[in-house]
Amino acid sequence: MKYGDSAMAHRYSHVRNYWEVNQAAVREMHRQVGDLQLDELGLAYRGLLVRHLVLPNRLAGTEKVLEFIAREISKDTYLNLMNQYYPCYRAGEIPELSRPISTVEYQEALDIARHLGLTRLAG
């Protein structure tokens, strides 16, 4: 789940209706496979894992993405909250995307997730 807002998705990735289509896709994936299940060795064998890349300046709509997961999918969703955004290619031409995320921005995303009851977090 890259963006929590279709306008941002269109502006930065030139895709339309991203948020609406992505929500429907994630709902359907969860309906089909449920929450991530691990075997006795801790290896995943079935279920949904959601990846979300935190962007600088809250451009990914992280709070909205996490609220959607917690309220409409499952608080037991395994979430890979990624902090490795690095500006490359033409990102330097877009001031709001021209830097990596800060430690404060990533910690804010983790705090939001925990506040919403999402505890199956990986970074």
Protein traits:
123 residues; alpha/beta; three-stranded parallel β-sheet; two-stranded antiparallel sheet; globular
Secondary-structure blueprint:
Layout lengths: L5 H8 L4 H16 L3 E2 L5 E3 L2 E5 L8 H12 L4 E5 L20 H13 L5 E2 L1
Quick take:
The chain is α/β, with parallel strands linked by helices and 123 residues long. The chain is built from 4 helices and 5 strands.
Outline the structure in words.
The protein has 123 residues and is α/β, with parallel strands linked by helices. Helices cover 40% and strands 14% of the residues. It contains four helices and five strands. The chain has helices spanning 6-13, 18-33, 62-73, 103-115; strands spanning 37-38, 44-46, 49-53, 78-82, 121-122. The strands form two sheets. Strands 3-4-5 form a three-stranded parallel sheet, with helices on one face. Strand 4 (78-82), helix 4 (103-115) and strand 5 form a beta-alpha-beta unit. The longest helix has 16 residues, at 18-33. The chain is globular and about 45 Å long. It starts with 5 loop residues before the first helix and ends with a strand.
Q: Output the structural class.
A: alpha/beta
Into which percent range does the helicity of residues fall? 25-40%
Report the sheet-strand fraction: 5-15%
Q: Kindly state the mean pLDDT as a whole number?
A: 95
**Radius of gyration, CA atoms, in whole angstroms:** 15 Å
Order of helices and strands: HHEEEHEHE
Task: Strand order, main sheet: write it out.
Answer: 3-4-5
The strand count comes to 5
Large-scale geometry? globular
What does the largest sheet look like? 3 strands, parallel
Pick out the low-confidence regions. none
**Number of helical elements:** 4
How far apart the termini lie comes to 15 Å
